[in-house]
Amino acid sequence: MDLALRHTIHQNSERAQDLYALEKDLRQLLKGKLEKRSEISALNLACGRADETGILAQILGEKTKQGHIQGLDLRRTEIHGASNLWKPVLENDEHGITCDFRVGRGDQLEQFQELADPDLVFIRHQNYWFDHQAWVKLYDQALLKLRDDGVMVITSYFDEEHEMARQVLENLGAVEVAHRFNPQARRVKDSPEVEKSVDRHISVFVKA
Ligand SMILES: C[S@@+](CC[C@H](N)C(=O)[O-])C[C@H]1O[C@@H](n2cnc3c(N)ncnc32)[C@H](O)[C@@H]1O
User: Which of 74, 114, 161, 199 has a C-alpha 20 to 30 A away from that of 128?
Assistant: First the structure.
């Protein structure tokens, strides 16, 4: 997939810039991880519109010859949008990464036995703040499903929410092995009382 396509597919320059920054940070944070696998299975949990599908496919395609990204979110409209946009793009791409999206609850992952155990669980702009109980369950189930040699990546809009998610994951037995704070990340102005920005924090966890 060419660079322009994976970032500018949305024709929105702010979003494209966010994706450039995310790709750069993820490539750095995942350096030396998920290597030497004949196949990679990724679970993009609470993926919403899944704007980052192109860059995930690019990064995974550089690590393996074959892979699949499974997106999952509660929101039907976003899932259908993601599916219509990304499935044809990846099917026609030479990187060997395919994708699929479904509507479902990440805190009820046990219902999706047929989903492959992921090498990578990715959660962009995790939403622990919104519903603590559901998100503890979502993290717990995601860690159970994650392969023992897999990695989980979360990103957050604001400091306190990132710290809370970190605590939950550590209590569930995950270990943070890499972190990036991006002071230049684009500000999100929907709640002036909190300093929020796009992919403000990114953390990589492994199972203990
Ligand atoms: C802050 S949005 C982030 C969406 C997307 N990852 C992004 O970065 O644009 C949080 C997402 O979590 C989803 N969500 C919340 N609770 C969920 C659950 N229990 N299972 C699956 N998705 C959930 C919402 O529908 C929403 O799309």
Answer: 114
pLDDT at 5: 61
154: confidence class by pLDDT, cuts 50, 70, 90: very high
User: For the chain, what are the domain ranges?
Assistant: 3-31+39-207
Between the CA of 49 and the centroid of ligand 1 the distance, in Å, is 9
Residue with tokens 């090498």: 119
What is the homologous superfamily of the domain 3-31+39-207 according to CATH?
Vaccinia Virus protein VP39 (3.40.50.150)
Looking up tokens 């809009």 gives 157
Q: How far away, in angstroms, is 184 Cα from ligand 1 center? A: 24
Q: How far is the CA of 36 from the centre of ligand 1 (A)?
A: 31
Report the nearest atom of ligand 1 relative to the CA of 135: 19
Helical H segments across 39-198, by residue range: 53-61, 76-91, 132-145, 159-171
Identify the helix (H) or strand (E) that includes residue 156: strand 151-156
Nearest CA to ligand 1 atom 11: 46
